[in-house]
Structures are given as C-alpha cells and as structure tokens.
Design a protein that fits this description.
Annexin V, domain 1; 7-stranded antiparallel beta sheet; single chain; Substrate Binding Domain Of Dnak, Chain:A, Domain 2; 3-stranded antiparallel beta sheet; 10 strands; 5 domains; PH-domain like; about 5% strand
Length: about 775
C-alpha cells in the first residue's frame, strides 16, 4: 500500500513529516494548476470544435448543392451524395465526441478540483492553525519557571490539550492527503480513458494511430478497473488505521521515550530539544537562531541537530567517546542537561523529565557502544564527519574550519607527523601540545587519561591554534620525540602497538613510554674524580699577554662545555656525538672557586652539592633555544622550575627569555613552568623580557597570568622598567593589562590567570596580545 504521508511520523511531528507535508502541498498546488489549465483548454477545444462543425455543415451544404447541379451526371451525383452523407455522419460523430469530452474531461475534473482539492485546502488551514497553537503552547511550557507551580500546571494542561487537538487534526489531515493522492490517479485516468474511447468511436474506421493505441487502451482499461478496486480497499484500510490510532492514549508527553543503539537506520534516538545559545549571553530567546527548538538525533557516533529536515545536520559532538553527559540543576529552566566535550559544552532542555532521562540514558548507552565497537578509530580518523563537509558544521564558523585545516596540513608536514606517534595510524587528527606530537583519536583518549601534567591533548581540526603553539609543534615532531622516548624500546623487548592493537595494549605502552619513561636512555652520571681547583696564583688582567696565555690554556667551564654539547645536539638531528660531551660537562661542573675568592657559606654549599644533570641540561638548552635538548632533559626527569643557585637562582624560563626565543618560553610554560618564579635579584621572566625589550615574550607572560606588580630588589616593577627604557610597545601592553585587571576586579569577573572572558575589553586586550605574539613570530 502506497502512503504519501506516514501516520506514525504524523504523531512525532518530525522534520520528515514536515518535509513530506511540504512536498505533498506543493504537489497538490501544482496539480490544481495543471487541472485548471486542462479544463480551460478543453472548453476552448469544444468551442472551437463546435465552430468547426458549423463550418463543416456549411461545407456539406455546398457539396449537396453541387450534387444537385450534377444531376445529369449520375456518377458525380452519386459520389457527391455519398461524400456528403459520410461527412454528415462525421459531423454527428464530432458532436458525440465533443459531448463525451465535456462529460469526461470538463465536468469530471472540475468536480474533482472543486470538491476533493477544496477539502484538502480546508484541512490544511485547520492543521496550520492548530500547529501554530501547539508551538506556542510548547514555548510557553518551556519558559515557565520551576518555582511558579501554578503556572507550571496551567502551562502543562494547555500543552496537553493543544497536543491532543493537534494530533486529531493532524491525523485527519494525513488521511485527507492519502485519500486525495489515491483518488486523483483513478479520477484522472478514468476521465482520460473515457475521452480516448470517444476518439476510438469517432475514428471507427480505425486510423493507424488508434490501431496502435488500441491494445494499450484495453490494457489501461483493465488497469483502471484494478485501480478502482485497490482504491476502495486502500480507503477502507486507511480508515481502519485512522480509527485505531485515534484510540491510542494521547496523555503521554512524547511518542518516543525509548532509544535503540542497534537501530537499522543508525539513529539511536531523535526528537526536539531546546538549545541554549552558545554566545556570550547564554540566552534561550526564541527570536535568536540558537535559542529555538532543534531536531536532535544520535547517529553515527555523533550528536547532531538540524533546523529543517532538508538542512545539513550540525555536529554538536564529533565523537561521543570524548564526551560526557550530566543533569543541570543550577539553572532556572526545567528538564535541562549538559553534554560536555573536550572543545565545548552544550546545554539542552527536554519537554519533560521522562524525555530528559531518556536522552541522558541514550547518550550514555551510545558512549558505551562506541567504545565496544571495533574499527571506530580508523573510521573517524580516515573519513571526515558531515559537519566538516557541511555548511555548518551550522554550527562552526567557516574561518575556524579553514584555520583548522591549515593547522592540520602544517603540523602533518613535519617529518614523522603524518602517522600517530604511538601506534603509527595514518592521518592523525589530534596532538599533544606539551610533547609536540600528533596522535590518532584512540591514543589521544589514552593521553588525556594520563593527566595534563603528562600530556595536553588538542584537536588539529576542531580547536583554534595560536601561532606560538603551531610554531612549537613544528619545532618538535614525532621523529624528534620518539628518538628520546623510544631510544631503548628495542633493548627492552617491548613491542610497539600497531593501528589495529587493542586499547589495553596501547594504554600499557603509552604509560610505560611517558609516565614510567621506561624506554628513555639513561642520563650520563657525573664524573667521580676529584675536582681540580683553579689556579690560586696572582691574578692577571685579561688584556696582558700573560692573561691571554692563561685564558688560552684554561679549560672550558661546565656551562661552556654543556652549551657546546647542546649546539652539536641541535645541529645533529640524530642526537649523536653529544653524550660524551654532556658527561664531560657534568664532570667539569664540579669545579669550584678557591676559598679565598668566595664567601664561606657559598663554599660549603658548593662542596656539598651534586650536579643535577637533567636540570642543568634543561637550563642550558633553554638558553640555546634547543627544543629537542629541552625535551630530552624533561624526559630524563628535569624539574622545569629548576633553580641554578650558582647563577643567581636563575631558572630555565629566565634563560629562555635571555636566549630570546618565544617558542622556547611557550614550551616551558606548556610543561608547567612557573611564570612568576624570580631570581636572586627579585626579577621574574616578565622583568627580564621587559629589560631586554622582547615584546612577544611580554605578551606571552601577560597572557599566562604573570604578576606585573612584582618588584625587584631595587623596588621596580616591569612597568617602571619599561618606562625607563622608553619602550612604547611594552609600556602600552603593561598599562592595558593593568587597566583590564582593574576592570575585571571592579566587575567581579576576576578569575584564574589566563581564563577567557566574554568582557569586550578583555577580548580586545587578548586580541592585541595575540597580534604582538604573531608579529614577533613572523619576524623570527
């Protein structure tokens, strides 16, 4: 049985139902126009035919007159008489044809248009009216505060009554549509068949055209009889189904309160939800495009929504395995729940508590199912989601998508980054920004479970990337990091996971690699020999010949040897030839000054201290701007906030400032460096960046919550230093930061350092800082 509009979809009032109505209504309108046009043409044809018959009669009278004139010629008279009689009979056949045409085409089709299509239009008006009333009732029910119980009951009663009325009228409308769609076939074909039989009778001699069409018309007549019988049967069945559905209980809030994770269509659950706007005001206003109801569905391991059924879906959650769902009881509106993903959160509102619970259970069940299914990671990594190809992704701005794609291409162009760093799966779409590696979605989930102190995961396509982070990713890469963290993996006999490995196998390997650091080559130990004291002879000026000779013969200091080792390391991508130099540098670092040339306390401290090889390596690599050396030092267990007591309690972050590299500072900050840790003179990284005039570093430290009110031992804060140095850019930045800080405190918006805000002044200030950082990176 062919049904134009499904009764079950009518109860759901789904976008499919609305789309089907739209198609049917457009089709009926077009059908009415075609039938009206056909009836008018039929009338014109009949009028023209009557005029033709009148002219033909006059022509026959002329032939008869000619026959009487030819009475002396019997052959001519007999022939003309027969011709006139035949033509007169043809006129009679024409008259019968026009009468049959008027009955079969004009009268029958006009009756169908005036009666059946008119009933359809009246049902359409009633449906549109009650549909609008239902939408108003739904909106009013959703807007009622939970605290006003009497308004809640009133809104609920109105909604129940309106929904019941809507379903009755909608079912009647669907019945009228299906009956009309079924009846129009028989009416059109019946009238046309009658018209063609009139022509068959008219051309009784059987012209070639009608001889060819004869079998077809007979077959069509037989089909028409069957169609008429089927139409009667279908009408009875639809009336029975209409009556059965009317007897259902309409008191429930929604016909679909259950989910099915194994649905053949791939849709676990679908229905209308209110969506809170994602703008800064977080409104539920129906006049805003983001605040009205949307048709949500869980399908293909994603949560999506659409405004109309014909629209491309907007993806809310790219992968359900990366999200969580929870109740929202801290907002005024009822029946709300929140879906939280690594990149954003979305607050939704159902029409009732039953629906809210059903949606939460559906999302949780989909998350569990997605983890159980095999091959999900390959499918998600290898095939873009509808939102990327969608316009909307609805949802995501085009600029962000373009930026994400350029970030993906730029990072994946680094050697080794075209595959996952841990399992080797091609086309990774995730990254660890503090390690500088690319990951597949399965390994990224394991990295996220390690905690941000080990790995900070970010999407290469869904997240926006600051230029300093992109630069950091391009300075490192999978090959560089794996040469450090997998240096001894073959010696241990541990097998590296493959793209098809189980999650447990991957998790064990990743924890051993990054948490236990089981495959990292051990750091060289310090030399056990007794340190050789420096010469205590008379001092010579460096400008004298003796002084120059002594300088040429004096062995290099520990810092010089370590710097040389790191220079070799940064130039040699294979990290060769530097292990011996590092051990030599550590041994030389135990050299001490004579007792007569330093304070007693410093002498005793130097004798008792042992050199921290990873800390010293990180310290010197930060100055040398060697990110591979810094990564290796951190892998060996270096403290990112290591303090060099021998050099005024300077830290690796301060050394990175002195080295002049913004990316080095970003790397240390991503790995937990304290932006406010100061040296012996009371100067932190922001102080040193201001003294040296490194505008990009100043922006970076302000962005990461550096304390610009801290003063050094001379009582100067960074702003005072910048004013003395007459550095207009840094003075402007510091004053903007101070003004922004004061505004945030006065408005009660002050939060954690670096926390984003919707305040326009805050946003403008952060935009200014990001532009300075981008400019510094471009110049570098």
């Amino acid at each position: 049985m062919r049904v134009a509009v499904d009764f079950e979809e009518c109860l759901k009032d789904s976008p499919r139902f609305r789309a089907a109505l739209e198609d049917v209504e457009g089709d009926v309108t077009e059908l009415e126009q075609k039938l009206d046009k056909l009836v008018k043409l039929c009338i014109a044809m009949i009028d023209t035919g009557k005029a033709f018959c009148l002219a033909n009669k006059q022509f026959i009278h002329g032939i008869q007159d000619l026959a009487q004139y030819s009475s002396k010629d019997a052959l001519v008279e007999t022939s003309l008489t027969k011709f006139s009689d035949s033509l007169q009979e043809m006129i009679n056949y024409h008259t019968i044809l026009f009468d049959q045409t008027q009955r079969s085409i004009k009268a029958q089709l006009q009756t169908f248009v005036k009666e059946d299509i008119r009933k359809f239009k009246d049902a359409k008006k009633q449906f549109e009216k009650v549909s609008e009333e239902k939408e108003n009732a739904l909106a009013k029910n959703a807007q009622v505060p939970r605290t006003k119980q009497h308004e809640v009951e009133e809104a609920t009663n109105i909604l129940t009554a309106t929904r019941k009325c809507f379903r009755h009228i909608a079912l009647d409308y669907v019945l009228q549509i299906n009956v009309l769609q079924s009846k129009r076939r028989s009416e059109i074909l019946k009238s046309m068949l009658s018209f063609m039989y009139a022509h068959l009778a008219f051309f009784h001699q059987g012209y070639d055209l009608f001889s060819e069409l004869g079998p077809y018309m007979k077959d069509l007549g037989a089909q028409l009889e069957r169609l008429a019988v089927d139409a009667v049967r279908e009408k009875k069945e639809m009336e029975h189904k209409h009556s059965t559905i009317q007897q259902k209980d309409f008191a429930s809030d929604d016909p679909m309160l259950e989910y099915n994770v194994d649905a053949a269509s791939g849709i676990v659950m679908e229905g209308y939800l209110f969506k809170r706007a994602s703008n800064a005001f977080k409104t539920w206003n129906r006049k805003k495009p983001d605040g009205i109801r949307r048709w949500f569905s869980i399908q293909n391991n994603q949560l999506v929504y659409q405004k109309k059924f014909k629209d491309n879906p907007t993806v809310v959650v790219e992968d359900l395995r990366l999200c969580t769902v929870k109740h929202c009881e801290d907002i005024e509106r009822r029946f709300c729940f929140e879906v939280v993903s690594p990149t954003k959160s979305c607050i939704l509102q159902a029409d009732s508590e039953k629906l809210r619970q059903a949606w939460i259970k559906a999302v949780q069940a989909s998350i569990a199912t997605a983890y159980r299914e095999k091959g999900d990671s390959t499918e998600v990594e290898g095939k873009p989601s509808p939102s990327r190809g969608s316009p909307e992704t609805g949802a995501e701005p085009k600029e962000k998508l373009l930026k994400g794609e350029s970030s993906l291409q730029r990072v994946q162009s680094i050697p080794g980054n075209a595959v996952c760093c841990d399992c080797g799966l091609a086309d990774p779409r995730w990254a660890s920004i503090n390690l500088g590696i690319t990951l597949c979605i399965e390994c990224s989930g394991i990295h996220r479970s390690l905690g941000v102190h080990f790995s900070k995961v970010r999407s290469l396509t869904l997240d926006s990337w600051e230029p300093e982070l992109l630069k950091l990713m391009c300075e490192l890469g999978n090959e560089v990091i794996n040469r450090v963290y997998e240096a001894n993996v073959e010696k241990t006999g541990v097998k590296k996971p493959q793209p098809g490995s189980q999650r447990q196998e991957r998790e064990e390997y990743i924890r051993a690699k990054y948490v236990e650091k089981r495959f990292v080559e051990r750091c060289p130990a310090a030399s056990g020999g007794k340190p050789r004291p420096r010469s205590q002879g008379p001092q010579r000026h460096s400008g004298s010949p003796e002084g120059r000779a002594e300088e040429e013969e004096a062995p290099p200091t520990a810092k010089e040897q370590m710097a040389a080792a790191l220079r070799v390391r940064s130039n040699d991508s294979g990290f060769q030839h530097s292990r011996e130099q590092l051990a030599s540098a550590v041994s030389a670092s135990t050299l001490y000054e004579p007792e007569a040339e330093r304070p007693e306390a410093a002498a005793s401290a130097s004798q008792d201290a042992r050199p921290d090889v990873p800390g010293l390596q990180l310290y010197l690599a930060s100055f040398q701007k060697s990110l591979p050396g810094m990564a290796e030092a951190l892998a060996h267990g270096a403290d990112v906030n290591w303090v060099n007591a021998a050099e005024g309690r300077s830290t690796p972050l301060i050394q990175a400032v002195l080295g002049g590299s913004l990316v080095t500072c970003e790397f240390l900050l991503q790995n937990g460096a304290n932006v406010n840790l100061r040296d012996a003179k009371g100067r932190g990284p922001l102080h040193h960046a201001t003294v040296l005039g490194h505008t990009g570093q100043v922006c970076l430290f302000l962005k990461r919550g550096a304390n610009q009110h801290a003063t050094d031992e001379e009582g100067k804060d960074p702003l005072s230093v910048a004013i003395e140095a007459a550095n207009a850019d840094i003075v402007t930045l510091l004053r903007l930061a101070r003004m922004n800080e004061e505004m945030r405190e006065s408005e009660g918006l002050y939060g954690q350092p670096g926390q984003p805000s919707s305040n326009p002044t805050e946003m403008q200030y952060r935009k200014c800082i990001q532009e300075f950082i981008s400019l510094q990176l471009d110049e570098a």
